[in-house]
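Predicting structure from sequence has reshaped protein science. With that in mind, we have picked out one protein's residues alongside their backbone shape tokens:
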Amino acid sequence: MKVYCFTNKNDYGGGFAIVIANSPIEALGVLANVDTFNLEHTDLSHCEELTLLIPNESITNPTLVAERFYTE
């Protein structure tokens, strides 16, 4: 598992989402399944692997760590 950070792609917004998953595509899928999340906030081009963070070995399923997006 790896740690991914998605940032907001909108000109009048901000925020981020941090997801633990095996790939950026799988991480975006985790976000898509969150009821309060809107896929208009981000996409794969706004995804970065956080290589300095290593998830605990006990995490075996893709997991949303934090999500804070906003649009003005």
